[in-house]
Fold each of these.
Amino acid sequence: MKTALLSFSVSALAVIATLQASAAWAAPRAESAQECAIAADMAIVARSLAQENVQREKASSIMTRVYDVAESQRGKALMNDIIEAAYKDQRPSQRFAEMLFSTCMKSAGNMDTVLGSRL
């Protein structure tokens, strides 16, 4: 009986750890239309900084101050994902932001298709 219970407990912990790890690797989700709009605003600024060849670290520092995300782990994670995607993307700033916003609104805040997943 103890072996079966121990085996079940280990299996349950493994499932929980897997689910938490999966969630940790996805880009943060916007929780409202307002957050989608803020993410789109971040996207246009990040892509503009990328187009001006501002170093990523400097862009991150600037955007942290502008968007006041220093105290928010979720806000910082989203901003960093947006910066990372903006520096890889080749679209104009406005188009990149529009794509992020429309994806966010159509998918209940899921921006993985634009921002990618952290692997």
Amino acid sequence: MKGETGMPEEHTECRYEKVFTVQFRSLGEDLQELKERVNRLEQTLARGVMLLIANLAGMVVTLARQLI
């Protein structure tokens, strides 16, 4: 666009810039939510693995006592 002087304005905005900005922010929020979900999933998986290891250790001790 041209300003009052007939010269092009220096700070013209693309008409889609606001839409892209909103989409970019939304993408950032979605990525943050995904990161939190993955973190919770990792924590749950770690707890499950620890319980599995504890159960296996208990089975080994039980079997060892029966053999002795």
Amino acid sequence: MDAVSPQKKFLSFIIHWYNLMNNAIETFLLNLGFSWTLAKYVPFLLALLIGWLLFRTVKKIRMNKWILFPLLALVFCLPFATYFFFYPIYQPDLQNQTYLPKTVINHPPKGTTLAVVVLPGCPYCMQTTEIMNRLTKQNKKLNIVYCLVSEDPGALQTFRKKLDRRIEIRYTKDAALWMLAAEGVFPSYLLFDNKRLKRAWHNTTFGVLALDELRAYK
């Protein structure tokens, strides 16, 4: 077995540290009742604050101005740039983009329901569970249903272990229609209100703005 280089160990340590920091900050803010949007952006503001404090500290050091000015710019920008490198702001976090499915679902869910259309074996689908667990606690009037478009008993059990008991998991009737409604993108999110489709998001357009809309949806 090849030995792991010190550079790779250091990079792994940095990634692990930032994962812990990100999860801790965002989870803490969400637990305090902050919106998804604020929980996303506050860490960046904190990074700017850290950069400013470093700037003020380094500014007191006496050195050649040709060295000092680039160093000041570096220490001010580095915390923000590093955090942004690991946790970039994507377009769905800036603009709430929805789409209109061209396919009509024959048996839409009742009530106010968010249908999460998932495909067994899809890693992005499995990553939704933690977010949906939190969302179901934030908005108890919103029913969340995971719609599996393939009858895979193992997948159903895997999702059941990770999801809150209030979240239903079902095999979809007319699976082909659900796949067409998702336009082949998994996961996709379809919001129904009294069997009428109100909003729909693909995984690539589902960000903090969509989560805040669902958090407040009545």
